[in-house]
C-alpha cells in the first residue's frame, strides 16, 4: 500500500499555541502509557496531563516523561474536570466513560475530545450529549478496532470512489500480547447477538458465530468468528460500504475452539460478568507480540486486500492510530480539522496522511 506522503510528517508539526497541553484520561493504563510515550517522543513541546482515579499512579506515570503532570480524574464524579487547575487544549479518553460525565464536561467547556473506547451501543448517547450541551467542539469517536485503524485504511483506499459492496475485517489477536481491561469488552459479552449490515440493510447475528477460514502471515490459518465493533455500522452510515463483517481469531487454536464452544453451548452466558472478565484477563500476557488484521474491500471492479501489522503489539497500534486523530484536532502537517460535534476518523478527506503517520511509527500496511 502506498501513500503520496514520503517525508516524515511528524518533523513538520507546528502548534498554534506555545504551551499546548493534552489530557489523557486513563493515561497510566496499557494503551494510555504507550500513547503518552509516543506524544512525548514525537511532540516534545506538548505538556501531557496524565489523568486517572488513582492520583499516585498518574503522578508516577508522569514522572517517567520529560514534560508531564499527573492529576486525579474520576469519570464517576459529577464533573470530572472540576478539579483541574487549568483546562487542556484537547482530551483523549482511553477509559470507558460509562455515564458520559467526562464527555459532557468536555463539551460544556469546548474542549476537543477523542474517545477510543465508546462501543457501538453508545454512539447515540454521544450525539445526545453534544446536542443537549449545544456543543461546537470536535468529538472524534475513534473506537473502532485499534482506535479505528481499519476504518482509516478503508477510507484511504475508497477515497473518491463509490461505496464498497462489502468490507471484511479479519483479526488475529495474539494472546502473547498485553491488553488493557477495556479491550475485553469485545469478548466479555461475545455471547450476545448484534447487528451487521449487508447491502445497506441490518440483520441480527449470534455473537462469535459464522466461522470463516482466514490465512494470515507466516502461513498461519485460523477460523475467525463474528464480533461486534462500531465500524460495522459507521462504515455503512458514512457511505463507505454497503456491508461490513468483522471477525476475530485468537492465535491459539485451543483457545479459539474452546471459547467458541463456550459461547455456542451457552455456558459463557451463564457465567457472571466478574468471572468472564477474570478468565479473559488471565488469558493474555504482559509482554508484547505482533498484532495483525486483514482488510478485504470488495468493489464492483476488484477486491483490495491489505494486511495491517504492528510488530509492537495492539497497544502501540491503538496509540499510533489515536495519534493521527490528535494531529487532526490540532490541524498539524496540513491536516483538515474534524467538523464540530460528533465525527469518525473515516469521514476525513485526507486519511492517506493518517496512513503515512502510522507507517512512520512502524505500522505496516501491505497489499496482498
Give the secondary structure arrangement, pairings included:
Blueprint (H helix, E strand, L loop, with lengths): L20 E5 L4 H13 L4 E6 L2 H9 L4 E5 L17 E4 L7 H9 L3 E3 L7 H10 L5 E4 L3 H14 L7 E8 L11 H4 L5 E5 L2 E5 L6 E4 L5 E6 L4 H7 L6 E7 L2 H13 L1 H4 L2 H11 L7 E8 L4 E8 L3 H16 L11 E3 L7 H10 L3 E4 L1
Parallel strand pairs: 1-2, 1-4, 2-3, 4-5, 5-6, 6-15, 7-12
Antiparallel strand pairs: 7-13, 8-9, 10-11, 11-12, 13-14, 14-16
Helix pairs in contact: 1-11, 5-11, 5-12, 11-12
Which key features would you list for this structure?
33% helix, 16 strands, Dihydrodipicolinate Reductase, domain 2, globular, Rossmann fold, 2 domains, seven-stranded parallel beta sheet, 12 helices, seven-stranded mixed beta sheet, 368 residues, alpha/beta, disordered N terminus
Query: What is the second-level CATH architecture of the largest domain?
Result: 3-Layer(aba) Sandwich
Q: Name the CATH class of the largest domain.
A: Alpha Beta
Overall structural domain count: 2
Structural class: alpha/beta
Question: How much helicity do the residues have?
Answer: 25-40%
Largest sheet strand order: 3-2-1-4-5-6-15
Organism: Paenibacillus borealis
InterPro entries: NAD(P)-bd_dom_sf
Protein name: Saccharopine dehydrogenase
Describe this structure in words.
- This protein has 368 residues and is an alpha/beta fold.
- It has 2 domains: 9-144 and 316-362, Rossmann fold, CATH 3.40.50.720; 150-313, Dihydrodipicolinate Reductase, domain 2, CATH 3.30.360.10.
- Helix content is 33%, strand content 23%.
- It has 12 helices and 16 strands.
- It has helices spanning 30-42, 55-63, 101-109, 123-132, 145-158, 185-188, 231-237, 253-265, 267-270, 273-283, 314-329, 351-360, and strands at 21-25, 47-52, 68-72, 90-93, 113-115, 138-141, 166-173, 194-198, 201-205, 212-215, 221-226, 244-250, 291-298, 303-310, 341-343, 364-367.
- Strands 3-2-1-4-5-6-15 form a 7-stranded parallel sheet, with helices on both faces.
- Helix 1 (30-42) links the parallel strand 1 (21-25) and strand 2 (47-52).
- Helix 1 crosses helix 11, helix 5 crosses helix 11 (314-329) and helix 5 crosses helix 12 (351-360).
- The chain is globular.
- The protein starts with 20 loop residues before the first strand and ends with a strand.
- Mean pLDDT is 92; it is low at 2-9.
